[in-house]
Amino acid sequence: MDRFDPRGKVNRALLVGVSEYEFTRPKHRDGVPGQLPAVAHNLALLVRALERGGVVRPLEITVARSPRLADFRHSLRAAADSAEGLLLLYFAGHGAVPSAGDELWLQMRDAEVVRGETAGFEGAARFTNVLRILANSHAERIVVVLDCCNAGNAARVWEAVERPDVRRRVSVLMSVQANNRIDAGDADTPTPFTARLVELLTSGIEGQGDEVHFLDLAEALRAHMSAHHRTERGERWEPQSRTENPPVDVVLGIRAGAGRPVGPGTALRQPAPGTVGTEALGRPTSGRRRQRALGALRSRRFLTTATATAKASVARVRAAAARLRPGAVSPSALRPTAPDPNRPSGRPSGGPPPRRLAVVLLVLAAALGLVGYFVVDNAASDRSTCAPPVELRLLTDPDLESTVRKAADTYLTSAANTTGGGCRRSGITVYGAGSAAVVAGLRDQSDPWQRPVSDDTDPQRDIGPQPDIWIPATLATATRARPSGVARTYVTLEPDAAPFAYSPMVLSLPQDIAEDSAGDRTGDSLAGLRAKLARRDKTASVRRPDPEYTDSALLATVGLYGAGKADVGRAEESVAPAGPPAPTAGDLLCALPDNADTDRSTGALVPEFLMVSGVGCDRTTRTPRRAEYPDDVPGLDPTFVRVRWKDGDNDEAARDDAVQRFHDWLTGTGDSGGKNDGNENGNERGKEADNGLAVFGQDGFRAPSGTHAFLAAHDSADGLITDPGPPAVAARAEAMDTALNQYRNANGPGRVLFLLDSSGSMAGLWQGPGGAPGILKQSLGGLGTQDEYGVWSVASPGHSPYTELLSFGPHKRQDAERALDGAAVKDAEADPYAALKAALKTMDQRGRDDDRPELIVFLTDDEDNNHLTAKGHLDELLASPRIRGVPVVMAALDSGGCAKSRPDQRISDVSGGRCLDTKGDLVAGLRDEVARTGTGDE
Question: CA–CA separation, 707 vs 704, rounded Å?
């Protein structure tokens, strides 16, 4: 295991504590839950612990007390830009999550939770964006510590980072598991998590020597907090951590009283106790004196590392110039201040005049032994801190999300997105969401997307914030999403007239069972290619992802059903997996190598580009594959769509400019390069141009017109055909909608039996939309009036393991919701073994004479699993033939319910169902599983 020792390097620690909020409930309806006075104690204690630890020097610590969002961003970028060794970010305050639980928002002083506003969480930093800023730092290692409610939701964001090199640099320590609120403690003491954190940093970890390492610290915190504290849901309080495997451990401190051996860097004399970072614990120093101290500190370090090239030295001096700017490190700069609008232009506010600053910089340059010229002019010294850039929200198809995110990341640091003063023009938040949900949201739900009024329809929760830009995988999907005019609409879609890239759909086959010649792999329908596959290998099968989640899977379904009157049920049976379908094409390709026999005998209907770019779980043991090109399956043609929202024009001009600049760069229509038209020389232009087509080309996309040439050259070893012949006819909106409706009704109405744990231990998990009955109510949208379903209350006060809350049969949704409203916790334990045994028997009897889709859902807190594991009950249940006939979704209101070898996971695996717990997105996952079985609209 690698070990990183930051001592002697240029490190930075940004400590952010939000104890005071401007908007709190109940005074402000959209405010945060309340003030957090305990957080104020965290900062002072943590500063002292870090100083004593000897890893981060006092001058390298910045404290931000209750900053507003804009100030936090300034401080974060400043710390990221100046760190070279360790970059440490600590945040304590309110942490908020959307109902879907797929993101974490760090709420700053000006935070509001505004329903109907574009971001949902105003005055809050999205952790995805925080992680992106940190990843752009030149720091060798980055450590994030989060002490807030729902901190564990940051794990999902970290796991979604595509680049392993970024994950390897960034380690995250989270105070509590996902989707759990925690008590901040008394107003006169620090929060429980930070109090223990400080104690371990100061006193060390028993049995681990003098050094305090990240991994040991995370484990010690988990052991202590889970043994001594509970979350507000009554669960064990379990801090979480994420670091890449194999892990890179980081030295964070030396216990008090131990020696202070200097690490791999150059030895530096520690500053006097009175000159700490940005917050003096002794006598405060003046801003000018602190600037001189910081300059001296930099000079000593630079002098000892003078082997760098002159070019690198100039870059460091420029960075030092920015740090020596007046006010940059003064005590008043705990929150960066905006320029004074009343001061004359051309002169900084306070601090030494420009000439004096220039002299200081020239002296520093001379000390570095620079060769050549170093010029500091008045304009450079007058340049104020960059204003926060316009933040654009970009929604895309899940299959495209990785490539679009790479393009957005490339654009952020490109010349097209940089002003003459070196500031960024815009930031871009990229997120994906299920294609069918996005189409429905834009077409029929723009009103609740702006102003959610119920838990039934909430696109902010189910999709994400209102986008400025949408990149669907096909132009036809943009047509499908046009507002229908039936309901009030608050959105306008402005799609480009033509797509900017293309990728055909292919049948990706293991090379041992694929056709050998290129001619046999093209010029045939999907049915024809599958027939030839069956003749070559009778055991071969074909799989397709979820047609409701991605456009590529829906396009594959269009080809699967074929023209004319299709036998949809038989077509679906031919591609049906053992469990639920993979959400995306990447997930499908990811899952196949889990079983070597399956990987060697299974074809996958996926977009061609994934055979070039690969998937996040790509491994050397995968079966090599070849692409076969069906001529009746439309390909992907990503299209740029500008999305405008009614009453969303407060910054219209700036937002329009930012969107247009990104559009021109992404599509190659700006000044930086020509649009690739698919001709031979266009291929070279796309490769060389400084635009988004180069990124799409690297990931295996083709030109959108002409001969559909690759945007970049690729190795034929990828199993692709450079010119597979005339492509399939472009997708039509009507054909896609028809195929989706046929898929949803492929096997007729569904049957679902809900088991609701109503035992006494569920009392703390019962009330509100996030309580157990509320979670079941949110899943009812996937059921139509022809579906049959029922609800059992699972508790055992008498002889039966359940009582019937809702009889089995078709229901109006409002009737089902009334039944759930009447559900109550009972003073009794649950018997999950007896309840599941009875449920399997019931579903077996109802499904004997048809092939309608069926599902059992058991929502529980797992407190009574002793009844399931005693007397061999679990093994008996798993051996029952009935459990293999009906998928069982085990939905555990416990963060560890789906751990490997736990009963919930084993039941789901054997039945072909899915296990959900609070470490993931339980609510959204349950809605998806019910919707796959039913015929509802959601």
Answer: 9
The kind and range of the H/E element at 645 are strand 641-645
Report pLDDT digits (tens) over 882-901: 887 789 999 998 877 888 88
Maximum C-alpha span of the chain = 91
DSSP string of 630-675? BTTS--B----EEEEETT--TTHHHHHHHHHHHHHHHHT-STT-PP
Strand bridging mode 788-794 / 170-174: unpaired
DSSP code of residue 286: P
Distance from C-alpha of 251 to C-alpha of 698, rounded to nearest angstrom: 37
Among residues 12, 256, 44, which one has the least CA distance to residue 143?
Answer: 12
* Token output for 350: 């306070």
Q: How far apart are CA 181 and CA 97, in angstroms?
A: 11
Q: Are 12 and 161 in contact (CB under 8 A)?
A: no
Q: What is the mean pLDDT of residues 413-442?
A: 89
Q: Sorting pLDDT into bands at 50, 70 and 90, what band is 677?
A: very low
Question: Over the stretch 138-168, which tens digit does the pLDDT of each residue have?
Answer: 999 999 999 999 999 898 889 888 777 788 8
> Residue 284 above 90 pLDDT?
no
CB 473 within 8 Å of CB 400: yes
Q: 749 vs 100, 847, 931, 937, CA distance in Å? A: 27, 12, 11, 13
pLDDT at position 938 is 61
Contact (CB, 8 A) for 635 and 607: yes
Q: Phi first, then psi: give them for residue 145, nearest 5 degrees.
A: -120, 125
**Quick check: 513 and 604 in contact, CB under 8 A?**
no
C-alpha dihedral (820, 821, 823, 827), degrees to nearest 10 = 150
Tokens of 617: 């779980």
Confidence (pTM): 0.56
User: Which residue in 342, 376, 351 sits closest to 292, CA to CA?
Assistant: 351
Distance CA 849, CA 615 (A): 41
For residue 921, how many other CB atoms are within 10 A of its CB?
21
Say if CB 148 and CB 17 are below 8 A apart: no
Which residue's structure tokens are 């484990």?
Answer: 219
As a whole number of angstroms, the distance between CA 172 and CA 243 comes to 7
